[in-house]
Amino acid sequence: MQTSERVRSIELASIRPIVHFAERAVPEPGFVWGHRVIPDCQLLYVLFGRAELALGPKRYSLSPGDCAFYGSGSPHRIETAANESTGLYSIHFDWTGGAPVSVHPAPAIRPCVGAQREAPPVEYRIAAGRGGSPIALADVLHAPELEPLFRPIIDEYREQRLGCEAAMRGYMAALLVALVRRQLHERPGPSARRVAPALDAIAREPGRSWSSRELAQLCGYHPTYFAEIFREATGLSPKGYTMRERIASAKRLLLTGERITEIAAALGYADVHYFSRSFREATGLSPSEFRLRPEPQE
């Protein structure tokens, strides 16, 4: 993780999270945490009821299904609704570390006073891989589908069974990846939005031999400018991206057990040998080696 005073950069593929504290809480109505700063990061998920979050100068009203994120050095205050019961999942964690040993955050939590309360929160920029530009992780996302991913972390922390630290690391990594995927789906970056018609077309027809001109026309841009913004959004040329998506589709089809000749034809390869050569160049494996079993016999 690369760090500056107000911006921290995370490589999603390299995270090895450590869970420091996890609970399901139903505090008294009108309960308040803060203003404060914490030594780690926190995810807060609203199960039922409502809560108000002050995050530096920003203000959010949280409802069921909302997930809030903030990191160390980010002043915040949480207040549950005064007239109804509120249920929350709360997880304190670090994005990466060595041995997954929990360090309870309580001794290092500090109160904020005066102008400290309005300091802007630290921004976490996530490099999600596949060549795209890093994204700034949102303060709040509405993501009800994440709720089941919180539960096993809460359970492991509460039960403290053998290997719980390792189990929580795996579950937490899955939760963080799901959170980033949700944001990418809900709030794509400006470059991704501009080339979205091309990305959708490639996803629908990965076996088609798309030209850069065809894809540019779908987005309404000159091919030269389109190629620039496409690379900005994906990290690849249109041809390189199309090939990557075609190989990804081939992997999915291979794992279904479909015959290699049929997969090659479905993905626009007139020659199965050319398909196998392209697949090996991309993955280092033949199609049969990838799925760990030989081609079925007629």
TrEMBL record:
The UniProt record lists the keyword Membrane: no
Swiss-Prot/TrEMBL keywords: Activator, DNA-binding, Transcription, Transcription regulation
HTH araC/xylS-type domain ranges (all copies): 193-293
InterPro entries from the UniProt entry: AraC_XylS_family_regulators, Cupin_2, Homeodomain-like_sf, HTH-like, HTH_AraC, HTH_AraC-typ_CS, RmlC-like_jellyroll, Tscrpt_reg_AraC-type_HTH
Molecular function via GO: DNA-binding transcription factor activity; sequence-specific DNA binding
SMART domains registered for this protein in UniProt: HTH_ARAC
Protein name in UniProt: AraC family transcriptional regulator
Organism name: Cohnella fermenti
